[in-house]
Amino acid sequence: MDAINMSTVGTGKNRIHPHKFTLWVAMGSIIMMFAGLTSAYVVKSAQANWLVFKLPPVFWYSTIVILVSSATMHLSVTAFKARDLKRYKLMITMTLLLGLLFSALQFVGFDALHKSGIQLFGIGSNASASFLGIITGLHVLHVLGGVVALLVVFIRAFSVKNRQYSSVPVEIVSTYWHFVDLLWIYLFIFFSWVA
C-alpha cells in the first residue's frame, strides 16, 4: 500500500519537506515559462523591424543589489541556524531592504528606457521592447512575491508572540530568493549579450 508521509516527501536520505517540494515544482514551472518567453524572443528577433537597443546602466546597479541581497539572505539563514537572532534580524532586514531597492531600480530602468524614446507598450512600441517589458515585468512580479515572503519572515523575526523555532520557513524563502536572483542574472545576460 502506497502511503505519503505528511511531514516529508520521499524516503530515506532523500526526504524533503512537502513545502520545499512544492516550491521546487513551482520554480520548475517558472523556469519553463521564462525559457519559453526568451525562446520566443530569439525567434521573433529575425523580424525585419526588430529594434536593437542596450539596457540602461541602472540595470547593472540593480544586478549588483540583488547579488548582495542573495549574500545577506545566505548569512541570515546561517545566523538563524546558529541561533544568533541578533545577526539574523539584521541580515533579514537588509535582505528585505535590498529587495525593495532592486524593485525600485527596475522601475527606474524602465523609466530610463521610456525617456530614451523606447516605448515598451502601446503606440510607438516595438516587439523587442514589448518582449523586454513583459519578461522583465514578470520577473519583477516574482521578486515582489519574494519581498512579501521576506516581509513575513521579517515580521516573525521581530514578533514576541512567535515561539516556534523552525528553519524551514527561512530556508524556503532563502531558496526562492536565490532562485529569483539567478533568474535575473540569466535575463540580464540574455538581454545584454545573447539577445
Shape: elongated
β-strand number: 0
Count of helices? 5
Name the assembly state. Answer: single chain
> Uncertain regions: pLDDT < 50 for 5+ in a row?
1-8
Describe the structure.
By secondary structure, the chain is an all-alpha fold. Helices cover 72% and strands 0% of the residues. The chain contains five helices and no strands. The N terminus is likely disordered.
What attributes characterize this protein structure?
195 residues; mainly alpha; 5 helices; 72% helix; elongated; disordered N terminus
Briefly say what this structure is.
This protein is an all-alpha fold. The chain is about 70% helix and about 0% strand.
Strand and helix layout:
Elements (H helix, E strand, L loop, with lengths): L17 H27 L13 H24 L3 H31 L11 H32 L9 H27 L1
Helix pairs in contact: 1-4, 1-5, 2-3, 2-5, 3-4, 4-5
